[in-house]
Amino acid sequence: MRRTFHILLRNPLSLLGLGLVAAVVLSAVFADFIAPFPEHRGAVVDFANFNRPPGWPYIFGTDLVGRDIFSRILYAFRISLVLGAVVLAIAVPIGVTVGLVAGYLGGWTEYALMRVTDVFLSIPPLVLAMSIMGVLEPTLTNGMLAVTAMWWPWYTRLVYNITRAEKEEGYVLAAEIIGASRLHVIFREILPNCVPSILTKMTLDLGFVILIASSLSFLGLGVQPPTPDLGSMVAEGATYLPDSWWMTVFPGLAILVAVFGFNLLGDALREILGSDQ
Predict the structure, then answer these.
(1) Is the sign of the CA dihedral 104, 173, 175, 189 positive or negative?
(2) Which residue among 16, 62, 126, 218 has the highest number of C-beta atoms inside a 10 angstrom radius?
């Protein structure tokens, strides 16, 4: 713990990343208590206050139907974090398992699994997600499936490379000599040595998942109105630039804060875990 605090304190950007991530997470968790107009997350119309610029009590202004943009951003953070968490919760176990098996077993198993992985990696992530969402109904669940389908190969490639190096180490050879099963060697010996790299990549990827999900919503293929989503809010406001600039600028800044925070925190985590090895 002392080493962790020392690393954080000597790197102001790490503290900034931790602060930004904490702000985003706390805003999402306590949105019901922080949002000045929690009812504005849904299909609410208030034409008496439509298209108002930033001011009190609408500190980020209002949209074309009078909904408070600040309140909707807080709830959009919640949706983005839930989507990111669910995507990684599905993609990481799949990618890690495939990478471990391919890297350790080798032979035709390695060839078959890694060629399938290469096929997915050869397709640009956003293009693959757009293709899937073009077939499925644009809902939050389908958006998660689309992003998950393009995310697991990156963990497969990462863990595969680590496993190929680790399986030649002495502790793995010792476990094999004493008769340990393949499952034991893979999940009890090799996997723990992959965890630092996996955790670091997960932290970095959470920001990128939010960015990809926002991109899909911007194109109309993600979360649908009236549910608040950062990408769809940017797309809605872009039509009315530059007059109603606040409708686009503040949701765009919210995406920037989330992605930037997770990237800085991921760099700090990489340094912390690397110093512990």
Answers:
(1) negative
(2) 62
